Amino acid sequence: MKFTAKQIAEFIQGKVVGDENASVHTFAKIEDSVPGAISFLATPKYIQYVYNTKSSIVLVDEAIKIDRPVSTTLILVKNARDCVAKLLQLYESAKPRKVGIDSLSFISPKAKIGKNVYVGPFACIADGVEIGDNCQIYPHATIAENVKMGSGCTVYPNASIYHDCKIGNNVIIHSGAVIGADGFGFAPNGECYDKIPQIGIVTIEDNVEIGANTCIDRSTMGSTYVRKGVKLDNLVQIAHNTDIGEHTVMSSQVGVAGSTKVGQWCMFGGQVGISGHINIGNHVMLGAQSGVPSSIKDNQQLIGTPPMRQISFFKSQALFQRLPDIYKQLTALQKEVEELKKKK
Q: In angstroms, how far is CA 170 from the centroid of its own chain?
């Protein structure tokens, strides 16, 4: 599918500089440009590429000054990154969606399947499952007994949704993700560990995206909750009885222990670890590899273990690198003090 510079400019409210009939059919980074592609320039750091780019169209932030002639067509916008995101969404939505039930899939006669649903080969849909309209269930996905799924959902290959879990509308579950496995519940009895049955479920609300190989455990009782708009990266672990607030995002390898409540609009960097039975407030930002042993109030920007304010963390890190020299100085001062004591 092709789009002209004029069509793109109208869609993103930009200004065309050059040939408004220039057309594109794909995307490319400005440093890896190819004819027929649209690229973007959002920082002066890459401005040298715009003068020799092969891309047919380049989106450019209005604040960046192009002071030499260019051969490509430019579209000037307030925020090139935001405009690229909108165009990528348009591009993705224009792709044809799969529809139809593959003959090699298994769908229980006791399941209810909505309209315009795709079920790929070797996907398994068990008794009592309800799947809404316009869902896409890819090959080898498994949806266990009594799962309820809204409309417009996508479940990619080899994802597993355990029994009784509830999935909202427009949820995306990537390959290898596991929704509703048992929470990590064991009780020592003196000789071994007794398994504590996990009889709850997982509830995933609307517009959630769950990355590849991410695991969300079912609750001991009640439900583990992932609220609307949450975005989880690959390899994230959400333990039993947790409650992840609306529009919170987590990068890869974040782990949240059991019975923890995370607020709305939080952002966690990679490998953040959250202890169990604590509360994280709203709008909390945690830098990569932060370890959180206790509750955090709203509107905090922290990093480290235990987490501290960013400026304090970086000052501490700078001081830590000097510790060997400081230790030598302290040792030398201690010797001087001991010698002065002997002279008295």
A: 15
Q: Give yes or no for a cis peptide into 306 (omega within 30° of 0).
A: yes
**Separation of alpha carbons 304 and 247, rounded Å:** 23
- Phi, psi at residue 91, to the nearest 5°? -60, -45
Which sequence positions are flagged as catalytic? Answer: 240
Sign of the four-CA dihedral 155, 161, 163, 164: negative
Amino acid at 234: N
- The letter for the amino acid at 187 is A
Contact 226, 202 (CB under 8 A): yes
Tens digit of each residue's pLDDT (9 = 90 or more) over 203-255: 999 999 999 999 999 999 999 999 999 999 999 999 999 999 999 999 999 99
In terms of DSSP bridges, do strands 130-131 and 154-155 run parallel, antiparallel, or are they unpaired?
unpaired
| pTM for the model | 0.85
Crossing angle of the two packed helices 323-343 and 310-321, in degrees rounded to 10? 60
